[in-house]
Design goal:
The protein is of the alpha/beta class and about 375 residues long. It has 2 domains: about 130 residues, NAD(P)-binding Rossmann-like Domain (Rossmann fold, 3-Layer(aba) Sandwich); about 200 residues, Dihydrodipicolinate Reductase, domain 2, CATH 3.30.360. It is built from 11 helices and 15 strands. The strands form 2 sheets. Strands 14-13-12-11-7-10-9-8-15 form a 9-stranded mixed beta sheet, covered by helices on one side. The chain has a 6-stranded parallel beta sheet with strand order 3-2-1-4-5-6, with helices on both faces. The protein is globular and about 60 Å long. The protein binds nicotinamide-adenine-dinucleotide.
Length: about 375
């Protein structure tokens, strides 16, 4: 049993809470879930039975349930808020939580605009409370090993690479908030891009982005059977809803140290693969490819006078979302050094917003003031 438990209130009891955060909380002994909030009446309460049925866990049994965030945040028992709501609510909920003196763990993407992301960082500094945004792929075993090798110089100069998350068919919550720009901030670029671009930049050593260019397309917004959602676990579909975001984005990012990154993200496109994510970086001494949510990773180099490929030994029991939540709790309870800084979130949303801007104007966008 842990000496001290962090008292957490969760807002948003949809897909990511049920299938990742709750999975983790059911296995962690240093958290206590004291409150749950979901705008849909009865949904927060229904999570208690769900936790028993799915995870054989009583972790939610003592949680007070709310439908109104403003009532929930007044709950003085809550020390830390876990935000699992649609993207446009991340910043307002994070800011209100921090102003109420709570620490905040927030789902990705950080928020839907640079200004909103800056407000989150400012509120955290003002309150002197921790703000961390989910970067679950950093916490896969493969990513942790590759990061350690990169920091030790084993790849040499990581000077260029490619990353992406491409789906042949897999639009989350078609017609719902995911495909409504005002609520999501965009399509696969912001939804999936934040995962892979972050991982690439993190392993590269967080160089500062200086310029981007990109193009976006929306070819699968019609209600065809083939293009309908394969991602039923996330978001809710609405048959007569909105689809005003891209379904594919391609782009190019340049960094202050001369490095560059090619990117591609799709929820739907006519490609061979069903669903594939990857970060492939090339260094002067060696390169690597991290793939399929970190379940595969290979290193490419030259030794003994020949080209060599090394399959990384990966502990597949390490779950990225759980690892990230455990790290966050360690930061709040034990003062561990956070591996995420809010400025990294601002840089990320700057990149994504500038790619949308480049797609709109047809020109490269500079990120240098
Ligand atoms: N890290 C990952 O791998 C990952 C994967 C999927 C989703 N996400 C992120 O998690 C977040 C939620 O996504 P999801 O797939 O769970 O969506 P979802 O639509 O399945 O769940 C969102 C929940 O928030 C609730 N909600 C909406 N407005 C609310 C309000 N004003 N107050 C309280 N509750 C409210 C909804 O009723 C719903 O239950 C998004 O930001 C998404 O980008 C992250």
């Amino acid at each position: 049993m842990a000496d001290k438990k962090l008292k957490i209130g969760v807002v948003g009891c949809g897909g990511i809470f049920k299938w990742a955060h709750l999975t983790a909380y059911a296995r962690m002994d240093n958290v206590e879930i004291v409150a749950l909030c979901d705008i849909v009446p009865g949904r927060a309460e229904s999570m208690k039975e769900f936790a028993h049925a799915t995870y054989n866990s009583d972790v939610l049994d003592n949680a007070r349930c709310y439908t109104d965030f403003d009532e929930f945040i007044k709950d003085s028992d809550i020390e830390s808020v876990d935000i699992c709501t649609p993207n446009y609510l991340h910043s307002p909920f994070a800011v209100k939580s921090l102003e109420a003196g709570k620490h905040v763990f927030c789902e990705k993407p950080d928020s839907v605009s640079v200004a909103d992301t800056e407000k989150m960082k400012a509120a955290s500094e003002q309150a002197g409370k921790v703000l961390m945004v989910m970067r679950n792929n950093r916490h896969t075993d493969a990513a942790k090993k590759l990061k350690r090798m990169a920091d030790a110089g084993e790849f040499g100069d990581l000077y260029c690479g490619r990353c992406g998350w491409v789906r042949r068919r897999g639009i989350p919550g078609k017609g719902g908030w995911f495909t409504t720009k005002a609520q999501s901030g965009g399509g696969p670029l912001i939804d999936l891009g934040v995962h892979m671009i972050d991982l690439a930049i993190y392993i590269m050593g967080n160089p500062t982005p200086v310029a981007v260019s990109g193009s976006i397309y929306s070819k699968f917004s019609d209600d065809t059977a083939e293009a309908s959602s394969e991602h039923a676990a996330f978001g809710e579909t609405a048959s007569d809803g909105t689809f005003d975001v891209e379904d594919l984005a391609m782009g190019f990012i340049k960094f202050d140290n001369g490095a560059c990154l090619q990117i591609e993200f799709s929820w739907a496109s006519n490609i061979e693969e069903g669903d594939r994510n990857f970060v492939e970086l090339r260094g002067s001494k060696a390169g690597f490819k991290w793939e399929n949510s970190g379940t595969q990773a290979k290193i490419f180099s030259e030794a003994f006078g020949q080209l060599i490929d090394v399959n990384l030994n990966i502990d597949k029991n390490v779950q990225g979302h759980e690892g990230n939540l455990r790290h966050y709790v360690d930061v709040v309870l034990n003062g561990a050094k956070p591996d995420f800084e809010p400025q990294q979130g601002i840089n990320m949303i700057k990149i994504l917003s500038a790619i949308y801007e480049s797609a709109r104007t047809g020109h490269e966008v500079s990120l240098v003031d």
